[in-house]
Design brief:
The chain has 416 residues and is of the alpha+beta class. The chain has 10 helices and 19 strands. It has 3 domains: 93 residues, Phosphorylase Kinase, domain 1, CATH 3.30.200.20; 192 residues, Transferase(Phosphotransferase), domain 1; 93 residues, no CATH class.
Length: 416
């Protein structure tokens, strides 16, 4: 595996640096520039022999038109003959690559290493947005199969923007539902029981419930600062995932624990039918006061809040509240008019002209903005009365490993 140096060229792009955490098993992601003065992009370059995986990923993102704010956007590459292609083979190196939008906020993996635990409001907001991304992919018939913190990106520094603009990336092993290729890799820590059993040799069919399970693991980790299952080696960890019960000694309302128990059920049929359903049930169990997200200052001027005018503080509070409220509103549909779904839901237009789907008849959304010196924004969901009709720099700590989806001969053991 060769990592390209600064100044190297891949097609029309000039490599600037490797994206932190961007070196993966099948490809490396670089920060690159189109020519000398063009836009900055994230360039994903396949390792030798991994071009087919990269072509599959690019083809899925392009063909399925998963054009949504919470899903990474693939960009066309301009070629010398004037044409534009999405997945390209470099003539000089023979490497396959494609360009994506470059997001400056880093990934959730590094953010959790720095923070250890997130607040309930932060954890829910991130889960809500990734749940929306999964809903869009699942409705298009696509399984992600590798939902984990390092594949969740922020459009901007999460210390500053209230965790809006959360994006799901790396569809490298994504497949149409019902078609799982052999020889794929698996991130053990976030794998569902059925994925773990398949890794042990059982020919199981994997469905969207596997992605929902992985999202629930991430929510659990954000709240508790640890994974629901831990072991000294991958073989023992797979055994725990398949047979053991998670440690429910976490600080959360009892109703929320019940939601997580269902989302982490061993049998995929016992889990929620969609990511949307999972997130809605989470929201019902979280007290409104626990959803507060206080934006952190990013410079000296913002740090000196006491010297700011009340009018500026009001604008800041409204901006944060609007961002969170709009994200929650996206959950009932496409999020923008370009997203193509098999069965689009009815839409209405909000006060800023964005298309948002109509809600189920028994649900409404209420946004409250509490303008205080810390500019706290609160989002709450309320039920109608009628019945329903249907930070310091991250430390170098061990992170998830990937194993091939092949039978594992070693017996389950907690010994190294």
């Amino acid at each position: 595996m060769q990592v390209l140096k600064r100044g190297s060229r891949i097609g029309p792009y000039i490599i600037l640096e490797t994206v932190p955490g961007g070196v993966g098993g099948m490809a490396t992601v670089y920060k690159a520039r189109l020519g000398k003065k063009g836009p900055i992009v994230a360039l994903k370059v396949a390792h030798k022999g991994m071009g087919d995986f990269l072509k599959d990923e690019g083809a899925f993102l392009k063909a399925q038109q998963l054009n949504h704010p919470n899903i990474i956007k693939i960009l066309p590459t301009p070629l010398l003959d004037g044409s534009r292609e999405y997945i390209v083979k470099d003539a000089n190196t023979g490497s396959w690559y494609f360009a994506m939008e470059y997001l400056e906020g880093g990934d959730l993996d590094r953010w959790m290493q720095a923070r250890k635990r997130l607040s309930m409001g932060e954890a829910f907001n991130i889960t809500m947005q990734i749940g929306q991304a999964l809903d869009v992919a699942h409705q298009a018939g696509i399984l992600h199969l590798d939902v984990k913190p390092s594949n969740i990106l922020f459009r901007a520094d999460p210390r500053n923007n209230g965790h809006t603009g959360v994006v799901l990336t790396d569809f490298g092993i994504a497949r149409p539902e019902g078609r799982i290729a052999s020889g794929q890799t698996l991130t053990v820590e976030y794998a569902s029981p059925e994925q773990a059993r398949r890794a042990q040799g059982e020919p199981l069919v994997i469905g969207k419930a596997a992605d929902i399970y992985s999202l629930a693991v991430i929510f659990y980790e954000m709240l508790s600062g640890r994974l629901p299952f831990q072991a000294k080696n991958d073989t023992a960890l797979l055994h725990h995932i398949v047979y053991e019960t998670p440690d429910w000694n976490i600080e959360a309302p009892n109703g929320l624990i019940a939601v997580l128990e269902r989302a982490l059920a061993k049998d995929p049929e016992e889990r929620f039918g969609s990511a949307r359903e999972f997130v809605l049930e989470l929201r019902k169990q979280i007290p409104t006061e626990m959803l507060q997200i206080v934006p952190q200052p990013v410079n000296v001027a913002l740090a000196m809040r006491r010297k700011l005018s009340p009018f500026f503080i009001l604008l800041l509070g409204m901006a944060v509240g609007l961002g969170i409220g709009t994200s929650f509103g996206y959950y009932w549909g496409a999020g923008n008019s370009q997203t193509q779904l098999p069965t689009p839901s009815p839409t209405v237009y909000n006060s800023i002209g964005e298309a948002t789907p109509t809600l189920p008849s028994h649900i409404s959304i209420e946004i409250e903005i509490a303008v205080t010196p810390t500019s706290t924004a609160i989002v709450s969901e309320v039920e109608n009365t009628r019945e329903p009709t249907s930070t310091p720099a991250p430390t170098a700590t061990p992170r998830p490993t990937q194993v091939p989806l092949t039978p594992t001969p070693e017996p389950p053991s907690d010994s190294p």
